[in-house]
Amino acid sequence: xxxxxxxxxxxxxxxxxxxxxxxxxxxxxxxxxxxxxxxxxxxxxxxxxxxxxxxxxxxxxxxxxxxxxxxxxxxxxxxxxxxxxxxxxxxxxxxxxxxxxxxxxxxxxxxxxxxxxxxxxxxxxxxxxxxxxxxxxxxxxxxxxxxxxxxxxxxxxxxxxxxxxxxxxxxxxxxxxxxxxxxxxxxxxxxxxxxxxxxxxxxxxxxxxxxxxxxxxxxxxxxxxxxxxxxxxxxxxxxxxxxxxxxxxxxxxxxxx
Length: 257
Prior knowledge:
- This protein has helices at 3-78, 89-95, 117-131, 136-150, 159-163, 189-206, and strands at 216-219, 231-236, 239-243.
- With 257 residues, the chain is mostly helical.
């Protein structure tokens, strides 16, 4: 090896060391950048989850607020106005046979029904066509109105007479389904069976005075002319219920519900 070649060896070694060092630095920078990118993605993912949880919490809070407001409105509607303090619906439900769940009710009790098959069918029809989308209490409320009318001298003294009063006319029928063609449409078998079961249960003694002696009701999206002449008694589901304003019966009832 010549002197010149010998002197060039350290330069070669230094160049190799520099190259290795530079490569190491580049690798470190790459790993740092990769780690930072991964961390950034993790942060973004965490923030996305956090936002989703916040959105869900907001929805739950809004739903809770809505339910609280609806409950307050229902309670206010149930308590106004009245001539004397009325029993709370909860106390009525506690004192009478339970109606919120008929799954365990023995259908053999139908022998106790104080009405013939025709009367039972008429009541089931009123429940089905007027309130089939309501809760069981809501459907029973319609049955309660029918029976309150049967007991009122202003109306026919039979269930079918009450339900079909005015049905011979295209206007003026007391229950709209009896003159608007609703009965021409196919029945929902499940809801019809439930309506029959509720009618049977009510006539078997499981009747609850949830409407507070109401003889009238209407859906909450209409404003009939006769409503202002009567006393509100309850709001159940989508229906508002009314009775005559005093014990003295008027000479004639409103023409239509």
